[in-house]
Amino acid sequence: MKQLSTNRRDFISTTVSAGVAAGLAQGGFFSAPTYANENKKLGFALVGLGGLATNQIAPGLLTSAHCKLTAIVTGTPEKEKKWADKYGIGRDHIYNYESFDKIASDDSVDVIYIVLPNSMHAEYTIRAAKAGKHVLCEKPMANTAADCRDMIAACKAADRKLAVGYRCQYEPLHLKSMEMAHNKELGAIKMIEAGFGFKIGDPTQWRLKKKLAGGGALMDVGIYALQACRCLLREEPTMITAQETKTDAVKFAEVDESITWLMKFPSGVLAYCSTSYNFNGLNRFNAFTENGFIRMDPAYSYTNNRMETSKGKVELPQQDQFATEMDEFAKCILENKPSKVAGEEGLKDLLAIEAIYKSMETRTTVTVQS
Ligand code: NAD
User: Fold this and answer.
1) Cβ neighbours for 277, distance < 8 A, ≥ 6 positions apart
2) Which ligand 1 atom is nearest residue 118's CA?
3) Rg of the Cα trace of the chain?
């Protein structure tokens, strides 16, 4: 049955179509990232061939400078031939969840990119590390901070790199915002307001099941607002107060629908954030500084984000966020450098998320664990 309400991909892509058409007409929308000294392409295996893998990551691999799709892992046999034909993947490089561990002897695979429901990230990251592969894991890194620690430990024990799919940390306007914030170009940040939400469709999807998703809007998209605050400030929140509202107790029986939370940072900055699965249009941050403001709205879309400061609009060439994220990870592996979105970064978000849920449940202000 066709869904009437907005699905997640449609929402994140809402501002895309006109811009893409215009960009393609000019001979290509995205500028591919380039690295002067490296020609080698690392082989990527995608685990979970759902919406994100199909519509964003696989196309990103086609335009990336240092990565190529060499293997797939899927539990849906019908997808095997389709993907094999489309991306030229040989029979020997197609796995299902039972045969996954055989990927250890697949020399075409350097990196395993986990694009599964949240609760499966920990298991497949640990299995991938044991198979001797580097791991790129989608956000949220896991359902719990404890799982994040196990994932970090497994990758460390296997001497493999682990990174989390925080694509916004490669988005040019986010990078510019962070640079302006860190250089105090408009003075120090005094307060931040941030939020991300969308109206979720299909009531049967895994995102609404606690066991698979770990939580609701907060785990899925609220995490972007949380990340934006942490990255702008380069600080970790210490105290969190959160409140939830649930207006549809049936659809959101297992996970959070809408949450507003307040974070206090060591510098004294307060950040008030919100997230929802119940309406569209919330996709922004606004950092109020001593002498002005830095804001993005939309902030977390795949393309066509907009940035404005108290000095005026900021426009920069766009890049495919997924191609850039994968290329940067490949560069870290090729040059043996740490990733700025390593597992520890995912863990910090989960520690804050756990404090948000605890505050909601206990109706108290909660200290963020470290
Ligand atoms: P999806 O539902 O479209 O795809 C999930 C895939 O997992 C499907 O191929 C499905 O068959 C497979 N799967 C395996 N076991 C499953 C099970 N028990 N239940 C349900 N599906 C199962 O989801 P998606 O949107 O591709 O999201 C996948 C991951 O990527 C999630 O962790 C999500 O948070 C993340 N994500 C990140 C971004 C981003 O911008 N970085 C965007 C969307 C999704």
Assistant:
1) 197, 198, 199, 200, 207, 208, 216, 217, 220, 252, 255, 256, 257, 258
2) 32
3) 20
Ligand 1 centre distance from Cα of residue 112 (Å) = 15
Judge if the beta carbon of residue 7 lies within 6 A of ligand 1: no
Model pLDDT for residues 172-229, shown as the tens digit of each residue: 999 999 999 999 999 999 999 999 999 999 999 999 999 999 999 999 999 999 999 9
- Cα distance between residue 95 and residue 123, in whole Å: 16
Sequence ranges of the domains in the chain:
33-167, 172-318+341-367
Cα of 120 from ligand 1 centre, angstroms = 10
Q: How many CA atoms lie within 13 A of 310 on its CB side?
A: 14
pTM confidence score: 0.92
Output the residue whose Cα is nearest ligand 1's atom 19.
206
Cα of 52 from ligand 1 centre, angstroms: 7
Mutation to probe ligand 1, out of 52, 100, 205, 349 (largest number of atoms < 8 A from CB):
52
Read off the pLDDT of residues 68-123 as tens digits, 9 standing for 90 and up: 999 999 999 999 999 999 999 999 999 999 999 999 999 999 999 999 999 999 99
**Beta carbons within 8 Å of 28's beta carbon, 6+ residues apart:** none
Nearest CA to ligand 1 atom 4: 50
Catalytic residues: 139, 224
C-alpha distances in Å from residue 230, one per residue of 35, 56, 181, 189, 237: 28, 25, 11, 12, 8
Atom of ligand 1 nearest to the CA of 49: 9
The response to whether residue 115 sits with its C-beta less than 6 Å from ligand 1 reads: yes
* Identical topology for domains 33-167 and 172-318+341-367: no
- The superfamily CATH assigns to domain 33-167 is NAD(P)-binding Rossmann-like Domain (3.40.50.720)
Mean pLDDT, residues 139-158 taken together: 98
Distance CA 360, CA 370 (A): 19
Cα(114) to centroid of ligand 1, in Å? 9
CATH number corresponding to 172-318+341-367: 3.30.360.10
Q: Is the CB of 207 under 6 A from ligand 1?
A: no
